[in-house]
Fold this protein.
Amino acid sequence: MDLGIKGKVVLVTAASKGLGYSIAEAMLAEGAKVAISSRSEENINKAAEQLSQSGKYEVFSTPADLSKSTDVDRLMDQVLNHFGHVDILICNTGGPKTSDFVDTTSEDWKIGLDMMLIPVLNMTQRVIPKMQENKWGRIIFMTSTWVKQPRKSGVISTMARSAISGLSKHLSNELAKDNILVNQVLPGPTWTDRSKNITNSLAEKRNVPVEVIKDEIAEEIPLRRYGTAEEIANSVTFLASEKASFITGASLQVDGGQIKSTV
């Protein structure tokens, strides 16, 4: 199936591994040109080498710590200078520390917002003008099922990603006239390094084996398993494609049925 994104320029952040890496891989398989970033220069260079498959695919990589505005500005300058524009922006960020509200400090909130919300605003603002000029664009925010069904000790992530959910819906209305489609993807439990860290943290707090926590979370999912990064990437690639040309302002749950609400 031709998804209609061959030759499109895609920027995927936090892409040295996990969801970001799988999304970049899926986009490249569809013939897109891909720019990737992560805070580690060593990791992002290694990821770019693997993704390019010895030059078979066009991959541009640069390190960027999204919590630093100077890094975000430099990232966008480099990508736009290299490709001239971005057709498809995949805003993927790392997650903050896990904590309950009463244990969350002002510094924790600042770090979380600087990591998850502020860079998303900056990157989105930089790509819109050219998308408007071209009358074509896709902006996809990677949020979480936590915005619909919060989990214990996830207050920072839930709050920051809920703000992005509001931004996604607003922009979908504002930019529709320019054929710029804006959606969010809500991954459920996906067995990545981030999920492993959260599971380990909860296990330590409760003084139980990691497998106990993992099994408890899987029990909440009708499919009775964690998702894979590839399964999330397939959904993102669909939303970025011409096959999703009448979808904007949507919240796509990719969660094995975990969210219990009817809408």
